[in-house]
Write a structure and sequence with these properties.
The complex is a heterodimer of chains A (843) and B (239). In chain A, strands 2-3-8-5-7-6 form a 6-stranded mixed barrel. A 6-stranded mixed barrel of chain A has the order 12-14-19-16-18-17. Chain A has 24 helices and 21 strands. Helix content of chain A is 54%, strand content 16%. Chain A is of the alpha+beta class and 843 residues long. Chain B is an alpha/beta fold and 239 residues long. Chain B has a single domain, classed as SGNH hydrolase (Rossmann fold). Helix content of chain B is 43%, strand content 11%. In chain B, 58% of the residues are buried. The N terminus of chain B is likely disordered. Classes of the chains: A alpha+beta (843), B alpha/beta (239).
């Protein structure tokens, strides 16, 4: 044992200069893991916090009926099993509010929310002028109101308003409050009061429509199981159970997509780091073969030699890991400084998480150990005679080695599953990893065979490049594997990122409408648009006519339904549809069959149907569909089929779109989307002006909610972009390290070539050709395979639309080739300059 | 069967969700195949049974309560009225002109469209959405009066069904809203059903989970109320 330690120390002392590069490469791999996992975890925590802020609770139970004893009991029993760290109840209703001053009889619709002392469990209530919120503001019939209400009622802070039969004093102006989700919009501005005071208004009696909720704050692991359990317990009780991670709306879906993406990236980082560490270890062991032979000459047993080098590999790994953690810490510390100019970026959290350090170090050590064991097993077969002549062991079967490799693979899959946090993602990535590795090895072998004829080429450089690629025991496969996998994952992450961000940008369209006027009557459209143009200074988007219609019959190629009864039995077709007419397609629509009518009107009734509806109902172009439009029968011929991108839901989507003309006389109402002014007071004035002039029109204002969502999503977007950029950066560094490791093999060769009279130019061309071919192949295979990875992950794991990104793939390929070539040349530059005699002597 | 946006304004909100919100795809494929409670074909199939010219008509102009939101159309009260008419051997055909989410203003706008054919009786069952949205009762009164007047001009008899607004809207608004209907009935001397949802509203067992729309059982009660007022009008109207 002492021998092993002493020997290991001696060896390291003798070659520490060379080991520096090894250390650095391992440090890069481990540092990359620690740095990026820390950031990923921080970003995830930030996302989760914001998601909780959107709902203001971990779990919310809501119902439109009063809580009865039985329901409360069920809930209490279920909650007894978990440690609930916060609980608050609230109620919501809408009502007419007016100033308490009798001389001003103006009454406006408002949305009333009663809260208890514990509100909010997450997030903060923001008040105008930055005043802090406390529940005391609501005590004794106090109210916090949205600025729109002040403008509509013409009251100010300190005035009294009448809610039901009670007087409330306006104590402050609400800017934003947590707990408003996208689905929860209403017809009036918000008022917040104490829940107990709300009871005193007399508004909650028989025949009242009130939503009641219970909000809970729970330890993280308990959230999903509890929500699931409560959903089962309360089935049929008209209670809606939501967890903050719930995916019942788009924002929830987007957030969980972001989380999945980040855990995927975390896994990819580990693999990239592992590639870095493994290539270092492999080269290290290869270099030691001659020393091993010497040791064996001197009587060392295989076991002792094995131990000596394993100890060295572990030491190497350990020191490299420590260095890596230091690198990561430096990287994290520099984030605020790097992004000092951009406050939004500087706010990215940058604490090093303990678990990330643990994971990075553990993976660094494990990978170093695993990847050194396999080549070190060869030590057993290194014979002293190796000193005298080159020997090759090709063709021998070594079961121990196979077993070690199988163990290595199994460990890698385990690491992948542990890292991914999601089994499906772990599996997808492991499968991708395995198949790309297989393809790369096959291609490596095939390549060697394919280019062998070139070995008799007239060009000396080409000949030798080929010979070198095809010689056994060289770096062809190793580089191909490392670079190919690197390209695979980096291109994959990059194109996933662009797909994901495209998804978010649809949600985050800054210029989209944030206010909707509904029930605008046909004769009011022009006047409403005029008023809007005047007030907002721009033309509103065209008003959308909407009608309700039912299908009452079909005469078609595949489907014939003669009565509404028959239609109704077809399920979907039997429901009431919202239909519209227009002469153009929306941005999110595409005609997939037939022809969409152009401008101009027609006498015959034509209708365009949605693709999914066609597929499910077996309606076809040319079929005649009978509609009951508000009591009148209309026969329409299907002339086209549209594909609607439902993700881009802001554009709206209709199953049936009619050609303008015959339906114009039908009594449609119009929906007018408006991009309202940004500040609350002018919005309120605009709404008031609209409602005063068009009393039947209702305004739905979504700005506040959309803003909350936008704030969260833009943070997520930013986090994803930064993480993606860092993956590229760190991954590139790791690959540069791996490629430059191969220089050691070249030192001796270059010296021999020089002795035989090869010039620098010839040597450079040889090296450039060799690396160029490798880089191009690895980049090509990696990028192509990445398309598959992106497709699978987009469609099956993130559930987003997938669009191919040829520019990213091509760029990935080109950049990989150029990079490998450049790094190969640069890493060999000093070898080319070195005098051959010196090398020959020292080797 | 549980509508996502449980109010007579459901379709509007559904549309809005489409138009602006990513939240849920009311029209989207995911929601598309909503199974509807199966009731085997009853004699009176819901909407118009195609063109049978010459049959005198009764048009029910209303909102989701008339359209039968959340119910198969054959279980909404107009279809039940048709059944009763058929049972007593009347030739009248009931047209369901209920539009979910419609207000009194909407009803006024589409009146001409709905008074198609040989319409003898117009059931006016509007106002629910005006009340839920806090629209001014005076405005609603003007709209309903317009509907009554224009129907009268065309020699169509009118049955006005009253509506209430939920308690949470506040006592003052509730009273002003309530007063509109008896006043209209008095001023225009039309047949009057004081409250369409009498005995149904507020009773959990007769309403769907949204607490607003009647179940099939509730709809039968509604049909019975309307029938009580409608039946005496038939003789005069069939001449």
């Amino acid at each position: 044992m002492r021998f092993v330690v002493r020997m290991a120390v001696r060896e390291i002392r003798a070659s520490w200069r060379r080991l520096i590069l090894f250390f650095l490469c391992i440090a890069l791999g481990v540092g990359g893991i620690v740095l990026l996992r820390s950031i990923v975890q921080d970003v995830r925590v930030a996302i989760a916090r914001d998601a909780r802020g959107l709902m203001a609770a971990d779990v919310t139970l809501s119902t439109s009926r009063p809580w009865d004893e039985k329901t409360r009991e069920v809930i209490a029993r279920r909650l007894a099993g978990v440690s609930v760290s916060g609980r608050t109840e609230g109620l919501e209703t809408s009502t007419m509010v007016r100033p308490a001053d009798e001389r001003r009889p103006v009454a406006k619709m408002a949305e009333l929310r009663g809260v208890q002392r514990g509100f909010p469990l997450y997030g903060t209530v923001e008040l105008e002028d930055g005043r802090p919120y406390s529940h005391a503001l609501l005590a004794g019939h106090g109210a916090l109101v949205r600025p729109e209400l002040l403008a509509q009622l013409d009251v100010r802070t300190g005035d009294e308003i009448l809610i039901g039969v009670s007087r409330f004093t306006v104590r402050g102006v609400l800017v934003s409050e947590p707990g408003r989700r996208v689905a929860g919009f209403s017809f009036g501005p918000r008022i917040m009061v104490d829940a107990a005071d709300l009871e005193s208004t007399g508004l909650l009696g028989f025949g009242s429509r009130v939503m009641r909720d219970i909000q809970l704050k729970l330890p993280d692991p308990a959230i999903e199981p509890l929500a699931r359990q409560l959903r089962i317990d309360l089935r049929g009780q008209f209670v809606n159970v939501r967890s903050f991670r719930g995916t019942e709306d788009r924002v929830g879906e987007d957030l969980s997509r972001a989380e999945n993406y980040l855990s995927l990236v975390g896994l990819v980082i580990v693999i990239l780091g592992g590639i870095g560490v493994s290539s270092v270890t492999r080269v290290f062991v290869q270099q030691k073969v001659r020393s091993i032979a010497v040791l064996k000459c001197l009587g060392a047993t295989s076991r002792q030699v094995f131990a000596v080098y394993l100890a060295q590999a572990i030491l190497l790994g350990a020191v490299g890991c420590l260095l890596g953690v230091a690198l990561a810490a430096a990287g994290l510390a520099s984030i605020p400084w790097l992004f000092a100019g951009q406050p939004a970026l500087a706010s990215i959290p940058n604490t090093m998480t303990g678990s990330a350090v643990m994971q990075g170090v553990a993976i660094g050590l494990l990978v170093a150990l695993l990847f050194s064991v396999v080549p070190l097993l060869d030590v057993r077969r290194v014979k002293p005679s190796l000193l005298l002549r080159d020997a090759s062991w090709a063709g021998e079967r070594d079961w121990v080695r196979w077993a070690a490799m199988a163990g290595l693979l199994a460990s890698l899959v385990l690491i992948a599953s542990w890292q991914a946090g999601s089994f499906r993602i772990g599996l997808a990535v492991s499968m991708g990893l395995a198949s790309v590795s297989l393809v790369l090895s096959l291609v490596g072998a095939g390549l060697v065979r394919a280019i062998r004829p070139l070995a008799s080429s007239r060009s000396v450089a080409l000949r030798h490049a080929v010979l070198r690629l095809s010689r056994s025991g060289n770096q062809t496969r190793a580089v191909l594997l490392a670079v190919g996998l690197g390209a695979f994952f980096m291109v994959g992450v990059r194109s996933l990122q662009s797909n994901l961000l495209a998804q978010f940008s649809v949600t985050l369209d800054g210029g989209a409408a944030d206010m909707f006027l509904i029930d605008v009557q046909p004769d009011q459209v022009a006047a409403v648009e005029g008023l809007l143009g005047e007030r907002t200074g721009r033309r509103p988007p065209p008003a959308i006519p909407v009608l309700r219609a039912r299908v009452t019959g079909v005469t078609g190629r595949e489907l014939t339904l003669r009565s509404y009864e028959e239609v109704r039995r077809r399920g979907e077709l039997g429901r009431e549809f919202t239909v519209t007419w227009r002469d153009h397609l929306q941005a999110n629509e595409r005609v997939v069959e037939g022809q969409f009518w152009g401008a101009g009107r027609a006498e015959a009734v034509e209708v365009s149907i949605e693709q999914g509806l066609r597929d499910r109902s077996r309606l076809h172009v040319g079929d005649t569909v009978q509609f009951d439009v508000l009591g009148r029968i209309v026969n329409a011929r299907v002339t086209s089929v549209r594909e609607v991108d439902w993700r881009d839901a802001r554009q709206g989507g209709f199953m049936f779109v009619f050609r303008p003309g015959p339906l114009d006389k039908a009594p449609a109402t119009y929906v007018v989307p408006v991009r309202g002014p940004a500040d609350a007071t002018s919005r309120a004035r605009l709404q008031r002006a609209l409602v005063d002039r068009f009393p039947n029109v209702s305004v739905i204002d979504l700005r506040e909610i959309l803003q909350n969502v936008e704030r969260v999503l833009s943070k997520v977007t930013l986090g994803i972009s930064v993480v993606g950029g860092l993956v590229l950066f760190v991954g590139t560094l790791i690959l540069i390290g791996s490629v430059s490791m191969t220089r050691f093999q070249r030192i001796y060769e270059v010296a021999i070539f020089r002795t035989l009279g090869a010039g620098t130019r010839l040597l450079t061309t040889m090296i450039a050709l060799e690396y160029g071919v490798l880089g191009l192949l690895a980049g090509g295979i990696g990028s192509m395979a990445a398309i598959g990875l992106t497709y699978y992950v987009s469609r099956h794991l993130l559930d987003i639309a997938w669009s191919p990104n040829p520019s990213i793939s091509l760029a990935g390929m080109a950049i990989t080739a150029v990079m490998v070539c450049t790094v190969g040349l640069l890493a060999s530059a000093d070898i080319l300059r070195r005098r051959p005699l010196g090398t020959l002597r020292s080797e | 069967m549980i509508p996502r946006f449980p109010s007579p304004t459901a379709w509007v909100l559904g549309l809005l969700v489409l138009a602006c919100l990513p939240a849920c795809r009311q029209e989207g494929p995911s929601r598309a195949a909503r199974p509807e409670a199966g009731s085997e074909a009853s004699a009176a199939s819901g909407p118009n049974r195609g063109a049978e010219p010459g049959r005198p008509r009764i048009v029910a102009l209303g909102d989701s309560l008339t359209a039968g939101l959340g119910l198969p159309k054959t279980e909404a009260y107009p279809a039940l009225l048709q059944q009763r008419l058929d049972d007593v051997g009347s030739r009248f055909e009931v047209v369901n002109a209920g539009v979910s989410g419609d207000t009194s203003a909407g009803g006024l706008s589409r009146l001409d469209w709905s008074l198609d054919g040989d319409v003898r009786i117009l059931i006016v069952a509007l106002g629910g959405n005006d009340g839920l949205r806090g629209l001014p009762p005076d405005e609603m009164k003007r709209n309903l009066a317009g509907i009554i007047r224009r129907a009268r001009e065309r020699q169509v008899a009118v049955l006005l069904a009253g509506m209430e607004t939920p308690t949470n809207m506040g006592p003052e608004y509730q009273r002003r809203f309530h007063d509109v209907f008896p006043a209209l009935a008095r001023d225009h001397k039309v047949a009057f059903l004081p409250f369409l949802l009498e005995g149904v509203a507020g009773r959990p067992d007769l309403n769907q989970s949204d607490g607003i729309h009647p179940t099939a059982e509730g709809a039968r009660l509604v049909a019975a109320h309307v029938w009580r007022v409608l039946e005496p009008m038939l003789t005069a109207a069939s001449r």
